[in-house]
Amino acid sequence: MTATMLLERLKTMAKAFLPDRRLNAFPPDFTIRRPILSLLRQCLGRGEACFLALYRWESKFDPEHRKHGREDEKRLSAASRRQLALLAREQFGKRELIGMDQYGPQDYVVLVSATQDPDESFVPVSLFRRLELLRHAFEGGTAAVLSEAAEQWQLTGTYVPVSSASWAADRDAATLFKETFDFALALATGAVTPQVIEARRQLDEILAEGRISVLAQPIMDLRSGDVYGWEILTRGPAASVFHMPDELFRFAGQSKLLSKLEFIVVRHALDEIASRRICEPVFLNVTPVTLAHPLFMAHLEQCLERHPSLSAGQIVLEITERHEIHDLSEMSRILDRFREKGYRFAIDDAGSGYSSLQWIGELMPELIKIDRSVIQFVDRYKVKESLLRAIVTAAGEMSCDVVAEGVEREEEADVLFRLNVSMGQGYYFARPNPLLHEHERGIFQEMKERIQSRRGLVAS
């Protein structure tokens, strides 16, 4: 045994005497204790609500076209552990953060405690948002230090409660943790378990009763400061595992219910738009499988017939790059049939993977929505600014409008002004909210003035 190996072994042995709280981030494999389980047991013992976040790296390629191997996975693991340890501590305080660890080559768990309203039976919305912010930061931070992460992998997040009822029944913490982790993994991968069967029953019930609601996030014109349009965002029942869209749409896709869900969302969205007398463009997320559905165009037409104040020219159908298109030529023909009726198209998540440029080149969208992974900290990373500039230039040559998504900081907005990006969307401008009537939009006047002021400062 070399001196270096001996020193590392002594360091590991010394950690065995540290308090659990000092070992809550990727602890060594001790045989005598498991610090994270001990900390979880303490939180549950105090009657606190605990939650498990499963962050999972998934390959962007099907098995036949995967380009990464064992060494790539090792580099991804090392970069991920460093980023998650740093970012989780930034997002959650010492009291909230129970611990984090890695399970398998691509699965990372974060345990947190949070206040839960008695009326909420799953993950509180406020906590979900914080866990999503952590996911975006985790994905972007890892990609910034490991370029192949953005090229080959995408990060998903699945969030579930650690059952306090099971703990009250005097269950072992290790068993309870395993059951919670297995449930999160089953939701993330579509594995069939008793919990997933129950979740499918709940989803069937939600769709049968139409218990879907919609919110809207404004898309701001960065030249005038006015609201250009609205992206419609979907929510399931408030106290359900399917409240937030990631879980709702992922599970619907796994259950072969995606088109049924999207038909319902379109109907609800157009009902809301008509009732609020919205006259700006409206962006509706639609997957390629639903666009290709033989009844989807008829469904849209029926919805418009119910609301004469709306027109096809007002609707922009967003196609996300996170859903694969197997035949671009056939999809292009489908889009042309919709364009004949007046509908327009946007490519969503541009810049998040290899297929962006091919999609844009062959489908010729009217708008390009740049993925938040490009926009996040674009002021700090020259490579991101170069990618953004290239997309804006290409869009100009194709006569496409550009929307920058996920704008959260003033410094990011300033880059958009400097590069003459035409539109922006994100928390910096406004969070998703219920649709507003025209007379309720005074709240956007302050934002308009801010956009005009910052644009003027950047230009000078």
Radius of gyration: 23 Å
* Biggest sheet architecture: 8 strands, mixed, barrel
Q: Secondary-structure element sequence?
A: HHEHEEHHEHHHEEHHEHHEHEHEHHEHEH
Low-confidence stretches: 166-170
In short:
The chain is of the alpha/beta class and 460 residues long. 48% of the residues lie in helices and 17% in strands.
Structural key phrases:
460 residues, eight-stranded mixed beta barrel, four-stranded antiparallel sheet, 18 helices, alpha/beta
Structure report:
- Residues 196-446 form the EAL domain.
- Pfam families: EAL (PF00563).
- This is EAL domain-containing protein.
- α3 (70-91) crosses α4 (125-145).
- The chain is built from 18 helices and twelve strands.
- The protein is 48% helix and 17% strand.
- By secondary structure, the protein is an alpha/beta fold.
- It is globular.
Q: Which SSEs are present, and which pair or pack?
A:
Elements: H1 3-15, H2 35-45, E1 49-59, H3 70-91, E2 97-102, E3 107-114, H4 125-145, H5 147-152, E4 153-162, H6 164-168, H7 173-189, H8 194-209, E5 213-221, E6 227-235, H9 245-254, H10 258-275, E7 282-285, H11 288-291, H12 296-306, E8 315-320, H13 328-341, E9 344-350, H14 355-363, E10 367-370, H15 372-375, H16 382-397, E11 401-404, H17 410-418, E12 423-424, H18 443-459
Parallel strand pairs: 6-7, 7-8, 8-9, 9-10, 10-11, 11-12
Antiparallel strand pairs: 1-3, 1-4, 2-3, 5-6, 5-12
